[in-house]
Amino acid sequence: MNLHVVIGYGPAGAATARLLAQQGHSVRVITRSGREPEPGIEHVALDATDSARLTEAARGATAIHGCAAPPYHRWATGWPPLAASLCAAAEATGAVLVMLGNLYGYGPVDGPLTEDLPLAATGPKGRVRAAAWEQARALHEQGRIKAVEVRASDFFGPGVTDGGHLAARVVPPLLRGKPVSTLGDPDAPHSWTYLPDVARAMAEVAGEERAWGRAWHVPTEPPLSVREMTGRLAAQAGTAPVPVRRIPPAALAVASLFSPLIRELKEIRHQFDRPFVIDASAYEAAFAVRATPVDEQLKATVEWWRERLAATA
User: Fold this and answer.
1) Is 116 helix (H, G, I), strand (E, B) or coil?
2) Which of 98, 154, 178, 233 is 20 to 30 A from 3 in CA distance terms?
3) Residue 311: other Cβ atoms inside 10 A
4) Beta strand 154-156 with 41-45: parallel, antiparallel or unpaired?
5) Phi and psi at residue 97, in whole multiples of 5°?
6) Which pLDDT tens digit goes with each residue over 284-298?
């Protein structure tokens, strides 16, 4: 039995922690506020940017899973101290650092996204995410830490709520037979990474030394547009199809005056205005995790939302 330390308890951190506990590992979750213990999971309250305290909390760990993120509109100032603290804890403890990344660092790209593309983003969010991995990779290459990054497209599935583009803004309305509004072109092919597959990849690469030192894309089913996914979700739910409408640019401009989140989405509009496709063939050629079949993803997601909505009714 190994100790795994999970930083953050949002959808990805919670899914990773629970999977590791199910696999028989000891799991310690680090968040600012802490939580009550769960079976196999210890919760510790501390600020993960405090490298001294984080290092002490990670003593004896096999792996540190970096699943936390600053508030979306504070990435530029919040990511550097968090990334530095994760690296410092990994160096002091010898634990492998498993970083959860995304696709922002590539910037706009024509064609499928592969791990060998340059991290050429010019916007602040893409650059700060790229810099976090570049820092860890440099330390790995110097032999000071062991590091690997797992990159996913937009999360989707049980546990993904307000932060998901195929979550709170889509599933509850369609279950009620109401129209769905979406950012960007509703017919553009888009890769959706299933949250449980993210957790499975995070757990797998932590124990695979040959994975360390580079980034990997989480196995992800072939792309489907928002309109296609909405239609398949409705079919899985046994409800009638609903209209899927693009949010007019003028409406987004007005909303951005009042919402920091919507204002910050401007940098990644390219991900929704044109095809956005992830290629995970490198991961699939090297390791065991495969994407969950899309019909299983849809079924689990609909069931989870129905239970959630019933509980809050």
Assistant:
1) coil
2) 154
3) 7
4) unpaired
5) -95, 115
6) 999 999 999 999 999
